[in-house]
Amino acid sequence: GQGDKSEVLVSAAASLTDAFREIETEFESAHPDLDIVLNFAGSSTLREQILAGAPVDVFVPASESIMQPVVDDGLVGDSPMVLARNRLAIAVPIGNPALVTGLDDFADSALLIGLCAPAVPCGEFARRALARAGVVAEPDTNEPDVRSLLTKIAAGELDAGIVYESDLVAGGDGITGIPISDEFNVAATYPIAVVTNGDSPDGAALFVAFVATAQSRSILAANGFTTP
Amino acid sequence: MSGALQARIDVGFDADFRLDVEFDVPPGTTVALLGPNGAGKSTVVAALAGLVPIDRGRVVLDGVVLVDTEQGLALPAEERQVGVVFQDYVLFPHLSVVENVAFGLVARGAGRAAARRSARNALPEFGLDGLGDRKPAELSGGEAQRVALARALVTQPALLLLDEPLAALDVTTRADLRHLLSDHLADFSGPRILITHDPTEAFLLADEIYVIENGAVTQHGSAEDIRLRPQTPYAADLAGANLLVGEASDGLVTVASHRLAIADTAASGRVLATVHPRAISLHRRQPEGSPRNTWRTAIRRVEHYGDRVRIQVGDPLRLTAEVTPRAVDALGLSVGDSVWVSIKATEISASPE
Amino acid sequence: MSGALQARIDVGFDADFRLDVEFDVPPGTTVALLGPNGAGKSTVVAALAGLVPIDRGRVVLDGVVLVDTEQGLALPAEERQVGVVFQDYVLFPHLSVVENVAFGLVARGAGRAAARRSARNALPEFGLDGLGDRKPAELSGGEAQRVALARALVTQPALLLLDEPLAALDVTTRADLRHLLSDHLADFSGPRILITHDPTEAFLLADEIYVIENGAVTQHGSAEDIRLRPQTPYAADLAGANLLVGEASDGLVTVASHRLAIADTAASGRVLATVHPRAISLHRRQPEGSPRNTWRTAIRRVEHYGDRVRIQVGDPLRLTAEVTPRAVDALGLSVGDSVWVSIKATEISASPE
Amino acid sequence: MRSRTPWPLVALAVAAVLLFALPLFGLLVRTPWSGLGEILGSEVARDALWLSLVTSLGATIVALILGLPLAWLLARIEFPGRALVRGLVLLPLVLPPVVGGAALLFTFGRRGLIGGPIDELTGLVLPFSTWGAVLAATFVAMPFLVITMEGALRNLDTRYEGAASTLGAGRWMVLRRVTLPLVAPSLAAGLVLTWARALGEFGATITFAGNLQGRTQTLPLAVFVALESDRDVAVALSLVMVAISLTVLVALRHRWWGAS
Amino acid sequence: MRSRTPWPLVALAVAAVLLFALPLFGLLVRTPWSGLGEILGSEVARDALWLSLVTSLGATIVALILGLPLAWLLARIEFPGRALVRGLVLLPLVLPPVVGGAALLFTFGRRGLIGGPIDELTGLVLPFSTWGAVLAATFVAMPFLVITMEGALRNLDTRYEGAASTLGAGRWMVLRRVTLPLVAPSLAAGLVLTWARALGEFGATITFAGNLQGRTQTLPLAVFVALESDRDVAVALSLVMVAISLTVLVALRHRWWGAS
Ligand SMILES: Nc1ncnc2c1ncn2[C@@H]1O[C@H](COP(=O)(O)OP(=O)(O)OP(=O)(O)O)[C@@H](O)[C@H]1O
Ligand SMILES: Nc1ncnc2c1ncn2[C@@H]1O[C@H](COP(=O)(O)OP(=O)(O)OP(=O)(O)O)[C@@H](O)[C@H]1O
Ligand SMILES: [Mg+2]
Ligand SMILES: [Mg+2]
């Protein structure tokens, strides 16, 4: 951070990395007196920090369930609003060696498939999508986060997995995406809220307002998110 | 400068061994501790140096109380001015010879460079020239012992504890260092305690000798005392004499049911009788003449020591006689042979136990 | 069983020290190595045991080639049947006395329990009863040395290397273990090498003596040879004799510009002349009579050894004389006094260098 | 000596202990003691506990078998590139776990350098299997054994080993009966560090072996997943790990560490 | 002895080395060598590198100051609860990093047991500050120093220290001139393990200290972020860590480790 600018500490889910870096640049040129400090980590890690009193101004986790305990603890000013949604997609290793075509292939026990763990949002949503498609999947692994699922797909260890669309945009090397049709697709919701622990409530409010602007929405869209 | 040492030490390891001794060493004198292996000599050193806590006792050096268990007082080792040559040297393996010798000087406040200089200057005196930069692992046994001696002596402590400091030295160096030590000891005004297994060394270097056996002092006195009137078999071995314990009455001593005539007709009760090996004669045939004690027995051992031969005879009294090689040849003595032993009554000195 | 040892060893540490020696030890004989500190005796042991690689040489034991540098062959230590008593014992600190002694038996294939039993049975012989369960750190110096001795002897190796095995023992135990050792050695058919600084020990236990100085053998022969004809000052010290190096001609030896008459008129060229201390007489006034060598000098040192007194006289010839305490008292000799020295020509034996 | 307490040292040591004890205390304060029994009795918890024990012990054993020889070589044998090998051993410590896991995938994965041939020859696929979890834990934990033992072996006086060999002990007996007992305290330290690190291993396992209950889901993985859904479960499972390691160490007290 | 090469040992050791070397090789194969210069010259990379060096060195120093006394006490002084303290020291190894970080937050956070009072008294807030990153790294890395040194000190023959004290050396001089030099190889091992662990530290740091570029974002955290946006950057940054640790260890070779 620079000199006497006031800092706004934004704790954002790691999947928002690229999008929020761009938004930071835009925001800071619009508000030269404010310095956005981005804190990327897994949503639950960020939540633990806030619950332990970390001086965070804005919290943007990857699911509403992560936000809930923070709300319950009375650490959120206004009730959270929805920042963006992230739709699911099928990820396969580049070249799609197992010739996966859609959700139906997840029932093929000959394939090595991976999902996120049911307790994790991406796992919960993936299972909902599969249920909608009437597919009974037996995953070979229940990855605790999308990142490790993607790593294994990229390495060719898994023939297919269900991830977020934004993941295919960011760091998607070695991965080919296959869209999931709207009728089955489920989207994760990214809530955003001002945290009362923070030292810059005004800056926080400005930032939350800024992410709702069209400028920000186009950045989010470019990174694979859908916006409300 | 005064500087006497008064020590009363009581310390035990487990139930097996207990050391309970008392010394009084005036300044400027050397006390030699002699005793069998495991008698507790090294334990005395450790206790005086502050390396082993004592159970009961009091040690005063030069008016300073080092330990007093009743007052719960025990000066830590580094605050006692005690120089120690350890039986197994305990040289610092990571330091060179010069650094080992300089260690005590640095610890006592000398500058690093000055200490090294003094240490290096002291090396020739101990026959260590040219070895200054070696590590202890690169020294021979005798060289290591000299380093240990140099390390302890250069600090000029108020009390010197020397645990078999010459045991690993060759004959020439041993004689040289014995002189060095006796010169050093003469200059050095504090008390010193020397442990040795070599009676000659003790007789040469010590003013007083303490014989320790099984944790207790069994005899102390001048070299002459020990030599002439040893009180225990160990002390007799030290003196090179034969020691017999018996019951005296009317000019006779009864030892294990064997009777010996002695000159002292007044002696009575339990006595220690000593006979010097050279006072015992051996004969092929029953001797005639003055010796009042003669009996027949067998030879158990024959040992040639250069110009003397020591012959041990068997029961009823195991005694060692010393004769010349010529006599052995003349009499044709060898192990198992039957011989006559004769001892003049005047050669047996008896003293009450 | 044969079992001789033939060894030719050449090994050096840095540039400072080089050992280059050759031995031939027939089976059943004991060779004593004597020599000043740092002469290389322990290095011989390490090289024979296989703990130090040798630079050049060949060692054959009982027909088996242990090392041959020309063939690039070196049996590892564990495949040589060599028992070693190390100068500093090197007992295993984590094992009890019994386990230390049993170690070699286990290593040579005995069952764990059987080995412990034999080890425990061997302890009394070495004066170690009751110490079987102690750890080495809980032993006195002499006790530790006995464990080292027991550990090496129980395995009955084909070659025994004893590096000052009795140095830390008390007089009584030393005599006992000397006997034990000489009995053991008598039973033991292999060759053995004994290192010692004690000439008596060497003379008693060894069949042949090698004097090593500065890495080389300077003299070897029987105890008698060394005692009567020492070839170096060190050997003379060993023998307790005075050694003079001089030029002989016409029944005279010139030593440092001083002339001594000798009996052997045939001797010529450089000779080693030895004089026994007891053959040197001291007088307050110029002596008259037969001794052909008399001169006047000063007393440098007086040392009392029990029943003998050794007196060193100063220039022109530093000699040690041995006299009785009675003589010292009678003549009132003390350091610095001027005395007359006399030596009979027949008491000086001269041999070509 | 023995009697005097060195207060400045004690003060620093107490500070060190507090650094470890206070966070534990903080954790205990926030623990949901009431629901604990139920959480710990669950199948997920039991599976994870069992797997954690298996993989951490397995990793420790493999580390011992491979790591001890390496430590011995590093300490005793002079060979070119020794410093490089020592540096290599530390890689798993400095590599971020995810990268380490990815590197393992490149090597031992189905399409990896070694994993490919292994798969073809034996049909054994390391990722997603318990073997994979053991491999990941070994990779991460073995450096502790190697580095600790190298230091200890370097410190050891080789004369004892020499004396043993003159008594007829071959290399193996010397190692077993002399070398290792003499460095026992350091070996205990190395093994404990290795085992504890393997027990706590998370990053490389998750990346390399995946997260399948009963097969690769060890306690740390279960904790991580639980953090997403039920914080109480996560804290409770963490306490299980704390309890295991404390129990093991207190139990080892006399056996291994030796009396002082 | 010296001349014979123990082949079975060598074979096992080679297997161990391969376990470390192959993944590195796998990583090198996938490294984007062309873009490397640009990536490493970026501000993010330079900040992270600098911070990593500062925090890992800082943590090593703090671990030395606090951990060495603790190791000494554990090795030398008999006190009740010693085994418990030793167990406590291992906590950071077995606690999942996120839980460890959370425990640190409970304790040293603004609302924590200690953090609250500290904040009120000094205004110093540890989380989200470089000091916090040092604290997290210390918490995680110090156990290695403590456990390694305890083992080494237990192995040490105390007679040398006794001899030094008879020569007049006080406790401090004995420590500095006798004890530590005698355990130098183990101390080197302990310090290297500590430093490497601190350098690679990720979980507790991201939880406790946050992930703020230039303040708490060390190399492993930067790798984590890079994984979300550009894998090439992540691999490149990982290689930086590998390079640093190899460089340091190869450089330390003679100075510290001592010739064998
Ligand atoms: N740490 C210990 N634990 C138990 N017993 C011990 C310990 N140290 C020494 N001892 C025993 O105490 C007794 C005295 O030992 P000390 O070393 O004082 O004997 P010493 O007279 O010096 O013998 P030496 O002439 O053999 O050196 C011995 O019996 C020894 O075995
Ligand atoms: N590792 C080594 N490095 C360098 N020099 C050494 C080493 N070991 C021994 N020496 C030197 O080699 C020489 C011979 O040593 P050795 O131990 O064989 O002597 P020694 O005859 O046994 O003497 P002592 O009677 O004192 O035991 C000595 O000068 C010694 O300093
Ligand atoms: Mg002793
Ligand atoms: Mg020697």
Task: Tell me what you see in this structure.
The complex is a heteropentamer, with one copy of chain A (228 residues), two copies of chain B (353 residues) and two copies of chain D (260 residues). With 228 residues, chain A is an alpha/beta fold. Chain A is built from eight helices and nine strands. In chain A, strands 1, 2, 3, 4, 5, 6, 7, 8 and 9 form a nine-stranded mixed sheet that branches. In chain A, strand 1, helix 1 and strand 2 form a beta-alpha-beta unit. In chain A, helix 1 packs antiparallel against helix 8. Chain A starts with 5 loop residues before the first strand and ends in a 6-residue tail after the last helix. Chain B has two domains: 188 residues, 3-Layer(aba) Sandwich (Rossmann fold); 111 residues, Beta Barrel (OB fold (Dihydrolipoamide Acetyltransferase, E2P)). In chain B, the strands form four sheets. In chain B, strands 7-8-9-3-10-11 form a six-stranded mixed sheet, with helices on both faces. Chain D contains 13 helices and no strands. In chain D, helix 3 runs parallel beside helix 7 and helix 3 packs across helix 10. Chain D starts with 6 loop residues before the first helix and ends in a 5-residue tail after the last helix. The model of chain D has no long low-confidence stretch (mean pLDDT 86). The chains are: A alpha/beta (228), B alpha+beta (353), D mainly alpha (260). Chains in contact: A-D, A-E, B-C, B-D, B-E, C-D, C-E, D-E. At the D-E interface, helix 1, helix 3, helix 4, helix 5 and helix 7 of D face helix 1, helix 3, helix 4, helix 5 and helix 6 of E. The site of one magnesium ion has 4 residues of chain C, from helix 1.
